[in-house]
Amino acid sequence: MPVTVAIFTTLASLLNIYALVIFARIILTYFRPNPGNPLVRLLTALVDPVLAPLRRVLPSFGGLDFSPVLAIVLVYELASICDQLAVGVTTNPVAVVVSVVLSVVSAILLIVLLLVFVRVIISFLHADPWHPLVFTTRALTDRFVAPFRRVDSRLVGAGEGPAVAALVVLLLVFVLVTQLLFPLIQQGANTL
Questions:
Q1: Are residues 58 and 116 located together in one domain of the fold?
Q2: What is the pLDDT of residues 93-105, one digit of tens each?
Q3: pLDDT tens digit string along 4-36?
Q4: Among candidate residues 87, 102, 131, the one where a domain is terminated
Q5: Would 151 disulfide with which of 41, 51, 58, 161, CB 3.0-4.6 Å?
Q6: pLDDT of residue 152
Q7: 77 and 166 share a domain?
Q8: Structural domain of residue 80, as residue ranges?
């Protein structure tokens, strides 16, 4: 195996591991661990220097910080480029940038869609509105449900008629954008 192939393959593997480290850091924030814990300090030292500049580039939406999503997409894209270079395939820089943008937008749409779905499920279960999970889910999704406030809740049989309407619209947008629009954009970028 030539040295360059070994270097690119190793770099791709390290980048894939780093994406998992970013994911671990994200999951860890939901448990509010002791900041003095050595594992927490290590994850913070490894991930936060990458997330800080991305937070300035990608604003939060509805109280959600999507900079980790951008970081993971960028790391996976870099790993993919390293894998391609290892086998001698050159990449189109425009197609790479378009792929990153489309992946980030798809991930953001999917996260919002899943959060609204969780809100609808919670409403059908009649969960305690002051439970931290219920309260947080409602707070995170209120901005996305607000445009549908005029939907009559009696139409869907639950107190969350606007959330159901938002879920349906978000699902349609997600399918149309990711299955029809994005492939056309990516195909156009690949031909440049």
A1: no
A2: 888 889 899 999 9
A3: 888 999 999 999 999 999 999 988 887 778 888
A4: 87
A5: 161
A6: 61
A7: no
A8: 1-87
**Count of domains forming the chain:** 2
CB of 75 closer than 8 Å to CB of 19: yes
Q: Model-level pTM?
A: 0.79
Same domain, 39 and 81: yes
Give residue-wise pLDDT tens across range 66-76.
899 999 999 99
Average pLDDT of the residues of the chain: 88
Residues 119 and 159 placed together within one structural domain of the fold: yes
